[in-house]
Every structure is written in structure tokens, then in C-alpha cells.
Design a protein that fits this description.
mainly alpha, 4 helices
Length: about 120
């Protein structure tokens, strides 16, 4: 049997639930893909979100998703650039930027469908 302690807050007794702090060297801030995944879970899958949060599996999961998303982004951008090479950056900077942005948008759609919103 687990002994749970409570604290009084006004007229309510709330359980004293504290998540353990990860070691400082393991803490890395969540970036775009980790934050998007967290937002998706929180809005569309609240039971999974709360379960992972309370079992302390949420942030390792989010860091894994953002790491995998960054690896896929890099790998797929290189692959897309070999099949559809961008214009020369030195001679046509704006066309190069537009081309790379279009490629990144295409790759991110795949990443969102496979990793973030699944």
C-alpha cells in the first residue's frame, strides 16, 4: 500500500505529487518537433499525455521524437537535394533559398505525418 500525503490549499486537499528532476547533463531544451509533439499529445490524446507525464516517460519520449525528426530532416534533405539539385547559391541566392525552403516544407510534411501527429 502506498502512503500518499496531502496538502491543504484553501478548502481542498491536494496530493503531494512531485516528479523527480533529471540530472542536469540530461536536460536539453525541447525544440520545434518536441514542442509540436507535446502539444499534439496534450490536445488530441490527453490520456496518453497524462499517463506519460505521471510515469515520467513524457520528456524522454519528446526528446527521442525531436532527435529522430532532426535525423530524418537531415537525411531526407540530402536525399532530396541529390534528386532535385538547387540552383547555384553564389549566382542566384533568392532562387536557392526558395528551392531549399520548398524542399524543407516537403520533408517536414512527411515528418509531421510519420512522427509528430501519429
Amino acid at each position: 500500500m502506498i502512503n500518499i500525503t496531502y496538502s491543504r490549499h484553501g478548502d481542498y486537499l491536494l496530493p503531494d505529487i512531485v516528479l523527480s528532476e533529471p540530472p542536469q547533463e540530461e536536460v536539453e531544451p525541447l525544440t520545434k518537433y518536441g514542442l509540436l509533439r507535446r502539444s499534439y499529445l496534450k490536445k488530441h490524446k490527453p490520456v496518453i499525455y497524462n499517463s506519460m507525464l505521471l510515469s515520467e516517460r513524457l520528456y524522454p519520449h519528446l526528446r527521442e521524437i525531436q532527435k529522430e525528426a532532426n535525423v530524418q530532416l537531415e537525411r531526407m534533405m540530402n536525399l532530396y537535394c541529390t534528386y532535385d539539385p538547387p540552383p547555384c547559391k553564389a549566382t542566384d541566392n533568392l532562387a536557392w533559398a526558395a528551392h531549399m525552403e520548398a524542399l524543407k516544407h516537403s520533408v517536414e510534411e512527411i515528418i509531421f505525418a510519420e512522427l509528430i501527429y501519429s
